[in-house]
Amino acid sequence: MKDNFSTQSADYAIYRPTYPQELYDYLFTLVKNKETAWDCATGNGQVARVLARYFGAVYATDISENQLKNALQLPNITYKVEPAEQTSVGNESFDLITVAQAIHWFNFEAFYAEVRRTLKPDGLFAVIGYGIMSIDKKVDKVIHKLYEDILGKYWDSERRYIEEGYKTIPFPFEEITAPHFQIKTTWNFNQLIGYLNTWSSLQHYKKANDRNPLEYLFTELKEAWGDDAEKNVHFPVLLRIGR
């Protein structure tokens, strides 16, 4: 698994969007017991902290120590620096396993073997993610220019799984058809810039060119944003659920 996010882990904790409560409520209706959960590739613990409100114990793993340093510490969350494909827990340990905005980086075969090993017989497995956001026509046009024209060749090949809505990842489980969810939030202009700076492709560009590509687009983005203090932002939620 690639570690594309350690260098901007503090910004990641601040600017990345959070999943809607309706998504969690739906998942929890499908989970029979709420003793233990595993959030793999937990990052800053965004999902783990929600699971901790409902499960007796949460195991949260990531390969980035820097990411875990920015995670919220709670008494029933155990954070470990471990790859998703190889954990130090016993067989049939978890009622729920989640992986959010990360499965495209995994070795699918090895990870799924670990899911089968550690999931309880009646447990639930959920792959979660989100696609590119939409704000309004003017802003979206400039962001598309950044995404495609400037950063296109700097995206890792695994990004295609996000673009394809996680529909093309292998998923050898008994799948449950899930409803559609959206992340809905409001941002000011600085939050937009903060979020764009967390993109892995932007970090790759900076390393290759010693310059932040947002410098080229800042004025154009600002003009597209206009005078609004805040704008509504929507992300489509990607979701695959299985047993």
Relevant terms:
243 residues, alpha/beta, eight-stranded mixed β-sheet, 10 helices
Protein model, in words:
This protein is α/β, with parallel strands linked by helices and 243 residues long. Helices cover 36% and strands 23% of the residues. The protein is built from 10 helices and 8 strands. Strands 1, 2, 3, 4, 5, 6, 7 and 8 form an 8-stranded mixed β-sheet that branches. Helix 3 (46-51) links the parallel strand 1 (36-40) and strand 2 (57-62). Helix 1 packs across helix 8 and helix 6 packs antiparallel against helix 10 (214-225). Residues 2-7 have low confidence and may be disordered.
How much beta, percentage-wise?
15-25%
Structural class: alpha/beta
* Shape by Cα distribution: globular
Give the helix proportion (percent range): 25-40%
Question: What does the average pLDDT come to?
Answer: 93
Cα end-to-end separation: 24 Å
Main sheet attributes: strand count, strand direction, barrel closure:
8 strands, mixed
Count, helices:
10
Query: What value does the Rg take, in angstroms?
Result: 18 Å
H-E string = HHEHEHEEHEHHEEHHHE
The count of DSSP E runs of length 2 or more, i.e. the number of strands, is 8
Sequence stretches where pLDDT stays below 50 over 5 or more residues: 2-7
Q: How do the strands and helices of this protein lay out in sequence?
A:
Elements: H1 9-15, H2 21-29, E1 36-40, H3 46-51, E2 57-62, H4 65-69, E3 77-81, E4 94-100, H5 108-118, E5 119-130, H6 137-150, H7 159-163, E6 175-176, E7 182-187, H8 189-196, H9 200-209, H10 214-225, E8 231-242
Parallel strand pairs: 1-2, 1-4, 2-3, 4-5
Antiparallel strand pairs: 5-8, 6-8, 7-8
Helix pairs in contact: 1-8, 6-10
Protein name: Class I SAM-dependent methyltransferase
InterPro entries: Diverse_substrate_MTase, Methyltransf_11, SAM-dependent_MTases_sf
GO molecular function: methyltransferase activity
